[in-house]
Amino acid sequence: QVQLVESGGGLVQAGGSLRLSCAASGRTFSSSTMGWFRQAPGKEREFVADIVGSGGSTYYADSVKGRFTISRDNAKNTVYLQMNSLKPEDTAVYLCVAARIGRTYVYWGQGTQVTVSS
Length: 118
Known about the structure:
The protein contains no helices and eleven strands. The protein has strands at residues 3-7, 10-13, 18-25, 34-39, 46-51, 58-60, 68-73, 78-83, 92-101, 104-108, 112-117.
C-alpha cells in the first residue's frame, strides 16, 4: 500500500522559514514526478511546486517562486519543500503528491498544516 506522509508543518511568524518533508512508502518514486499542493480554508486547492524524478527540473507557482525550493532524495524516497520569507497568505494545508499523469497525480498525502502569523 502506497503512503505519502508529510511532516514539518507548524506555526511561524511572517518572514520565517519552515521545511516540509514527505516520505513515501509502498513503492519507489525515483522515476516519478513528486510535488506539493496547498489548500487554504475556503479556497481552491492550488499547485505549489513539483520536481521530476531525476531532480533535474523543477516548477513553481508564481506565488512562491523565489521563496520556496523543492528538492528530493531518491535514496530516501522523500521530497522536501523549503519555505522561506513566509507570508500570512501561505497559510494552508500542504499536501504531498506523487506520480503525475498528465495534469493529475495518482497519490496524495493527508497534508500538514502551515500557519503563518502576521
